[in-house]
Design a protein that fits this description.
- By secondary structure, the protein is mainly alpha-helical.
- It is built from 12 helices and 2 strands, in the order αββααααααααααα.
- It has a two-stranded antiparallel sheet.
Length: 254
């Protein structure tokens, strides 16, 4: 676990230890939570992963919903050293039952995409609705997706557009960093394809550009699941430019 390969992990350790007494300022849970975000573009180093698992498992046994959610998320992404959707579902179910709404939202994803469980849009809608009622914009725009595609609910593109628009209108700066790219992408799709609204290629281009930049930021922070969406934005921007260029008048002289 070299400092070169894992600079943020070393920074967490060094920043939380009293040099005079060589005693840590933080307790084990604080360390585990900090390691969750350190060097997020890579799997955790094996000793860190083992430490995080041990700490969270002790916290889960003591009744912690947050620890169950965090450990489940680590198995979902594979950062803990192995990707195990079965463990992710089990832990997120436990965390959700204990009241953790992020875990509830995670379960929506598991059932929406079939992560080692059968695809079940009814359950996905149920979990997303619970998250949306608690103000989670990710859960809300996923409900928009279900109306857009007609999954479990009757297909209604106008309702999907309204939901995406609502997400944009209520999005805070903190939420923008977390899920703004996804919302801008969906709004761009609506304007480029006429989903629930009239096509507006100039608006679509601007929204795709914003989404591209936000996706890039998240990819650089380690969210590699988004590379496909990033490439889609670039492709759609080029398509919008081609359409818009057709309306540019040719120079005919004076």
């Amino acid at each position: 676990m070299s400092e070169k390969d894992y600079p943020e992990v070393h920074e967490v350790i060094e920043g939380a230890v009293d040099d005079d007494f060589e005693e840590p300022f933080w307790d084990a849970v604080e360390f585990a939570n900090a390691f969750m975000g350190a060097d997020a573009t890579k799997p955790m180093p094996e000793p860190v992963a083992e430490f995080v698992k041990e700490v969270y498992e002790e916290e889960i046994a003591a009744g912690s919903a947050e620890a169950a959610c965090n450990l489940g998320a680590s198995y979902y992404t594979g950062r803990i050293g192995e990707q195990d959707f079965t463990k992710a579902v089990e832990l997120c179910t436990l965390a959700s039952q204990r009241g953790d709404r992020q875990a509830t939202e995670n379960l929506g994803y598991c059932y929406y995409y079939g992560r080692n469980v059968p695809v079940d849009y009814e359950k996905a809608f149920h979990y997303y609705a619970m998250g949306a009622f608690d103000g989670h914009l990710v859960s809300l725009y996923k409900i928009g997706d279900m109306y857009r595609n007609g999954y479990y609910v009757e297909k209604n593109e106008k309702e999907a557009f309204y939901i995406y628009k609502r997400c944009m209108a209520t999005m805070t700066e903190e939420a923008k960093e977390l899920c703004g790219a996804d919302i801008y992408l969906r709004m761009a799709d609506c304007y480029s394809e006429g989903i629930g609204t009239e096509p507006d290629y100039a608006k679509a281009l601007s929204l795709y550009q914003t989404a591209e930049n936000l996706f890039r930021e998240r990819i650089m922070r380690g969210d590699f699941f988004l590379r496909g969406n990033y490439r889609k934005c670039v492709q759609k921007e080029n398509e919008m430019r081609e359409i818009l260029e057709r309306d540019i008048p040719e120079w005919s002289g004076f």
